[in-house]
Amino acid sequence: MGASESVTRGRELIVEKPMTAALVFIGVVLLLDMLRQLLTGELAISGMLGLIKDGLMRGLVIGLAGIGLSMTYSILNFANFAHGDYITAGAFSGWSVTYLIAGGFGAEANIGSLALVGAGGSVFGGALGVNIVNTPLAVLAGLIVAGSLTIGLALFIDRFMFKPIRDAGGIPLLITSIGVAFALRYLILFVFDSSTRGTTDAGTVPDIRPLVLDGTVPLTLHDGFLVVVAGGLMLGVHFLLQRTKLGKAMRAMSDDESLARITGIPTERVIRSTWIIGGGLTGIAGYMFVLWKGTLSWNDGWLLLLLIFAAVILGGIGSVYGAILGGLVIGLTASTAVIWIPSGFARAAAFVVMILVLVARPQGLFSGRSTA
Amino acid sequence: MTDESTPSDATPDAASSGFEPDGGATTSAATDVTLYEDSILSVRDLDAGYGDLQILTDVDMDVNDEEYVTIVGPNGAGKSTVMKSVFGLTSHMGGTVQFETNDITTMRPEDIIHLGLGYVPQNDNVFGTLTVRENLEMGAYILEDVPQDSLNEVFERFPILEERQTQKAGTLSGGQQQMLAMGRALMLDPELLLLDEPSAGLAPDLVAEMFDKIDEINDAGTAILMVEQNAKEALRRCDRGYVLVDGKNRYEDEGTTLLNDPQVRQDFLGG
Which of residues 226-265 of A touch B (CB under 8 A)? Predict the structure, then answer.
C-alpha cells in the first residue's frame, strides 16, 4: 500500500466516521505523550508497569463481580443496583469470620470487636497478622463464608423482593433494587460503623520485586492469590456455560425465555441457580478486593458498582465474557489514567473511555444479549 | 413411537383409572362426524384468549392416535391460539383440554411437555445463540441425559442438522431453523406434535420438502396437529381438517373432502 493510498484511506475515515477518527487521533496523542514522559524520565518504565499491574488486578475484581451483574441482567432482564452492596455484604461477612479465626475467637481481642471487623478501631487486621501466609485458614474460611453468605443474601432478596414483581418488567425491578441497595448499605453502616479499617498485615505479605530496567515492580502473594482465585472462577464459569446442562439452559433462557419454558426448561430453578452462581462470585470478589487492597469500608461495593456497570456496559451488557474483558479495560484505564491526569480524575477517565468505546461500538465489545 | 414410559416423573397422573376414549361419547358441536374412537387430544367447548380479550369460543377439536390433523381458516381466525391454548400459553376462560388420560386445561407448558406433547411455535423457534446440537440437547432438558437414540433419529431425519451441529442456530436459513425446531421437539419422542405454520416464510421449493418431512414424522407414529396458511397442500396431505372462523368451529371433515367441498373452496381456499 503506497503512501498516497494511506492518505486517501485516512481521509475517507475522517469523512465517514469522524468520531472514530477523532478517537484514533486522541489515542495517538496520548501514546506520544506517554512516550515523551518515558523518554524524559518523567515516568519510569517500572512505574508504568506497576500501574498496569495494579489496573489488571482491579480489573479482575471488577470482572469477577461483573459476571454476576451481567448474568442477572441477561436472565432476569433488569439491572440490579443492589449488586454493589452484595459485594460489601460479602466482604464484611467474610472478614468478620477471618478476624474471628485469626483472633482466636476472643483470645487476642474482644470477640465482639472481632465479629464487627474491628469497628471503631478496636482491633486492627495488622495486629492480628492477617494475610495469606500467616493465617491461610482464616483467609480461606473468610472467602468461603463471603461466597456462601452472599448466595444466601441474593436468594433471600430475590425470594422476598424481586420474585413477587418478576413479571412487572425491568423498571419496577430496577427501582426496587435501588431501594434494596440503600437498605443493605445503611444496615451495614449501622452494624459495622463508617470507619475505613486496615484489614491485612500488608508488610509481611511475601513479595518479589523483579528489576525492570529502571526500577522494581513489586508482585505480592496477594496479587498472585487474586489472579489464581479470579482466573480460576472465570474459567469455571466458562466451563459451566459451555459444557454443563445448567449453563446451556442459562444461555437458552437469556436467549429466549418463553421458548425456554416451552422447551421444558424449569425457568424458576434456572433463575435460582443464576443467583447462586452470581451471588457466590460477587461475595468472593468483595472478599478478594479487600484482601488485595488491604482496607475495608461500608461503601466499597457501592463505589465499585459504578465501575462494574461501566465494565459490563462496555463489554456488552448481558455477556459474561464481555464483563470480564470490560472489567480489565476499566480497571486498566482507572489506574493508568494517572499518567496523564491527576489521580482524582482517574475514575472519571474510566467512564470517558466507556463512553468513547460505545460511540465507536454502540453494541459493546461483545455484542450483548447472550450470556455466552 | 413411544410407549407409556415417556418422561413421566412429574406427571400428575390423575384419573388414570377409567378413561377410555370412546367414539360415541364425544359430542362435536360443529359436525356429526364421529371419528374419535382413538382420541389422544380432546378439546371441549374451549374459550380462551389473551388477557381479557377472548379469541376462541366453544372450540371442539380431537386428534386420534397417530392421526394427522390440520387447522385452516382465514387470518385472525384463532388457529394459532388453539395451539397455544392446548399448550397452556393463553388465558383459559372455559371448557376443557384432555391429553390422553390427563386434564391439561390449566397446566403450564413446562409440565405439559412431560406428558408427551410437543409444540413448535411459528416464529423465533430456535435459540439463536446456541449451537444446533445444544438446541437439540435443550429439547431433552427434562431427561436426565441426552437420549442418544432420539438424537441419532433426528440427525437421520434431518441430515443437515448433523452437518451443522456445531454451528450457531442463528446462522441457519429459515428452513433449517424450522427443521431444527421440529428436531428439538422430537427429542422427547412426543405422542403428539403441535406445529404452528411450519411452512411460513419458506421458499416454495422448501415448502414441499417440509411437508414431506412432516409426513415422515407422522408415518413414524407421531400424531400431528398443524396450523397452516398453505391450506390446500395441508388438506391434501392430512387425515382430517378443521376450518376455523372467528374463533369458532365452522367445518370439520377428512382433508380431501374439505378440499373438494365447493363451499369450503370458495370461502377459504380461493376457489
Answer: 245, 248-249, 251-252, 254-256, 259-265
